Protein 1
Amino acid sequence: MITIDGNGAVASVAFRTSEVIAIYPITPSSTMAEQADAWAGNGLKNVWGDTPRVVEMQSEAGAIATVHGALQTGALSTSFTSSQGLLLMIPTLYKLAGELTPFV
């Protein structure tokens, strides 16, 4: 049995089910981004046998824009954020919803 915290559990599931991970470290989600970056650096594979591409952006807006672009190409993508970071993503989230682009 492995004991991990919530951030570790979320990072593990997201890493294994993503093709692109756009990160901008922001507390309290920075540990998830750091873990995903470390796993990718070590060549850990996702469920499809590929190593997800981890891209560190300069802002939360950049991170969600990267997710948007990846979704448009059909890639499964992830970003980790906090409540304050989510507020900065709202304009792009409205755009995704308006385009009827599926995302979680």
Note: Residues 20-98 form one domain.
Protein 2
Amino acid sequence: MAEYNKALPQPTPDTQPYWDGLKEHVIRMKRCLDCSKHHHYPRALCPHCGSTNLEWTTVSGKGKLYTYTINHRPPRGWEEDAPYTVAIVEVDEGPRVMTTIVGTDADPDLLKPDSAVEPVFDDVTEDITLLKYKLS
């Protein structure tokens, strides 16, 4: 595995099941047992109803491109990737996820809101896998 020199997430006890799932190439999100809504990012309270009655569920992660921007002026470490697409994907289960779009040029003619997308698991280190997306 090549050395990864970019910023990495720091899992916490509240987020560790999410990161563990990505390492297994599955997406886990919390779902409220009171209002039945999924949410992302992982947290102790449901952002929809305030309940603490939550469970981890496995979701497909498939969804649609909600919005995006093409970054031509990247932060340190991402220079070789520019231009690249930072996106918000609305997954079929409801939540919106901030991510990057891979597998296609960062070209507005190719990236249309509501385009179908699917998850890509990027094993960047032995401990961290990042969730990215590609057009379906």
Note: The beta strands are 27-32, 38-39, 54-59, 63-71, 84-91, 96-101, 116-123, 129-135.
Protein 3
Amino acid sequence: MSVTIRQANVSDIPAIHNLVAELASHLGEADHFTSPIEQLERDFKDGFFQAILAEREGEVAGMALYCFVYSTWKGRMIYLEDFVISKRHRRQGIGQQLWDVLKERGRERNCAILKWQVVAEDEGAMRFYRKQDPVFEDQWLNGKVEL
């Protein structure tokens, strides 16, 4: 079965929303996923994020949701916010295909770094990311405040 990798469009927002909900559930955080689909659609239309989708037999099997950010130390970066392969499509090479296209998107925009966060306890995700030869930053803490 072949996989098609393509850029998402606004009609894909329901599938993207479903994949994010699946990720939240997988991480045991379903109660914390509160973004309504309308917000996702509005922010997509406003250009706050982009997504690459993997399709198999007309069904969205996975996605990489990302945005471009800037580092005064490194320059342009591509930031991977969510990387999800639907449970029934995992371990079939789809993640690597998405990853490779995501890296190419970053190169096309002259990005120096692809950056992401991962929950350390997510063993499947950690196995995948370790294959990408990453540098995990243990000296930096993530901070956030609600606005």
Note: The chain is about 30% helix and 25% strand.
